[in-house]
Amino acid sequence: MIGSRWIVFIAAFSGLIGVGIGAMGSHSLAKRLQESGLSQSDIQKKIGQCEIAVKYQMVHTLAILAVGLCPATETRRVWKVACILFFVGVCLFSGGLYSMVFLDRMGHWSIVPLGGATMMIAWLVLGIGAIFPSKSNVGTGKSAT
Predict the structure, then answer these.
(1) How confident is the model at residue 136 (pLDDT cuts 50, 70, 90)?
(2) Which residue in 44, 87, 96, 141 is a FRET match for 116, CA 20 to 30 A apart?
């Protein structure tokens, strides 16, 4: 399983990509889409999709970072699983939207909703991990982390 340092690295990488795509989206995407001959309504739709993708990526990047910086994550496998699910969700959800915006295609229609569902499951796993004590601490008198 991955350690907290790798979780922070994944968050940093995801943040880097999110800021880069967000900057490109706000500075050059409209011009690029106009040059490709799209209608104004299609351009606005794609810009909106890019904004949503970046927003969801950055929110979930911050969630990954917060969990990665939490000292309890070193001992909580369930929190590491939540971080992996967050990242997979970002790749599917935001990645699917990015492919629709920049490549004008997506591998399969279910990629974006599957990514959203994966992010929701990650939040559920994180919440469950926060409520229930670690099995290693049950019966030891140690507080749950």
Answers:
(1) low
(2) 44
